[in-house]
Specification:
5-stranded parallel sheet, 34% helix, 400 residues, FAD/NAD(P)-binding domain, 3 domains, alpha/beta
Length: 400
């Protein structure tokens, strides 16, 4: 079992399962580790598949130190159990096998559900609906599935092969996908609702927040989310790149630019201890030669002929100029108002779709989840909302 032996043996299999409480998906961590400890990897995966269909992916990209591992009893007196590595190992074992994603799929019940968006929320919802016997069709604006997993997670964090294998296992459940279908362009909520028994919206909310400063609209200023999603190619070699922000997206953008030879400076207005990025990603960035400037904000971007300059101000009031060829903002994201305002659904003050406790929107039979409803931005949280939506859709259709 390679070095997995020592990893699973380190787990105490706590009855209280505090690690489970720290997992957004509610994975039964001690139980799947116990099965792995006994060498029963299929059983371990079956335990995982009760709550997640993205084990091999989440096992690599989830911020474990902030979630499940942070709640591990072992962490009180030392290092926590390496839950992510164990989950990824089990997920990989499954991907290498011929086993289906679920061991118990109900027969078709004759009802159809449309899902808009093939990101982690949409894929999870589709998978759990198929498990419950529904005919599921996903409408996706791109010509590939995965959403933020495919276009927002760099290959140095998640290999494309692992992602594609994971998606293939989900599609093998019999899920149909219509590509190049975009809400407001060639599909609408109303038309989908008339054709399908229920609809789940999982478009994401990938518009980067950019502060209202001078120079924000200059050509070489980007939102990190849009840039990573677009797959746009820039000449980074020997260029000076500034990343504003210190979350996981900021680390991904910084490391991507660095991998192409850029000189990268990450600027964050708070202290290092307040970073939202996973600590392992921060350490990786440091190891790759990325510089960090804390307690500092960007006040202005100036273009002088062909040169860009950024005006930075420390929290103590020290002002200085840093030459930059590109600036990327990674300080959070928001809903795309151009899209959400056309949905015909009630929105909150920030443009997110309003839902009730069952994730149903203001239109009966139309559900929404993930970033579109303003949830915490993470693959695990989005996947959780997709799973919850599937069970809520099931209850709704059984009662209507």
């Amino acid at each position: 079992m390679e070095k997995i032996d020592s990893l699973v043996d380190y787990c105490l299999n706590c009855l209280a399962k505090p690690c489970k409480k720290g997992c957004p998906l509610g994975n039964d961590i001690p139980s799947f580790i116990k099965a792995a400890k006994d060498g029963k990897f299929l059983d371990a995966f079956n335990i995982l598949s009760e709550t997640t269909v993205l084990a091999a992916i989440c096992g690599r990209i989830c911020p474990f130190r902030q979630l499940c591992e942070n709640n591990c009893i072992r962490s009180l007196k030392g290092e926590p159990v390496q839950i992510g590595k164990i989950e990824a190992y089990i997920g990989d074992k499954f991907l290498e096998s011929d086993y289906p994603l679920f061991s118990n799929v109900l027969k078709d019940n004759g009802k159809k559900v449309a899902i808009v968006g093939a990101g982690p929320a949409g894929l999870s919802c589709a998978a759990f609906l198929r498990k419950l016997g529904y005919d599921v069709t996903i409408f996706e604006k791109y010509n590939y599935v995965g959403g933020i997993i495919s276009h927002g997670i760099p290959s140095f964090r998640l290999s494309k092969e692992i992602a594609l294998k994971s998606f293939s296992k989900i599609m093998d459940l019999g899920i149909k996908v219509c590509f190049n279908k975009e809400l407001g362009r060639n599909i609408s909520v109303g038309k989908l609702r008339r054709k399908y028994d229920a609809v789940f919206l999982s478009l994401g909310a990938n518009v980067s927040k950019i502060p209202n400063i001078k120079g924000k609209r200059l050509p070489n200023v980007y939102g990190a989310n849009e840039f990573l999603e677009s797959h746009k190619e820039l000449e980074f070699h020997n260029k000076n790149v500034i990343i504003i922000g210190a979350g996981n997206v900021a680390m991904d953008m910084a490391r991507t630019a660095r991998s192409y030879g850029a000189n990268v400076l990450v600027v964050y207005y708070r202290a290092q201890k307040d970073m939202k990025a996973d600590s392992s990603l921060y350490k990786d960035a440091l190891g790759e030669g990325i510089d960090f400037l804390f307690n500092t904000g960007l006040k202005q971007i100036i273009k002088d002929k062909h040169n860009y300059r950024s005006y930075l101000v420390t929290n103590e009031g020290l002002r200085f100029v840093y030459p930059c060829d590109y600036v990327f903002f990674a300080i959070g994201s928001k809903a795309d108002l151009k899209v959400t305002k056309k949905l015909g659904l009630k929105l909150d003050l920030n443009g997110y779709v309003k839902t009730d406790k069952n994730l149903m929107t203001s239109t009966a039979g139309v559900f929404a989840g993930g970033d579109l409803i303003g949830q915490e931005r993470s693959v695990a949280k989005a996947a959780w909302s997709g799973k919850e939506a599937a069970y809520n859709i099931n209850l709704y259709l059984k009662n209507n």
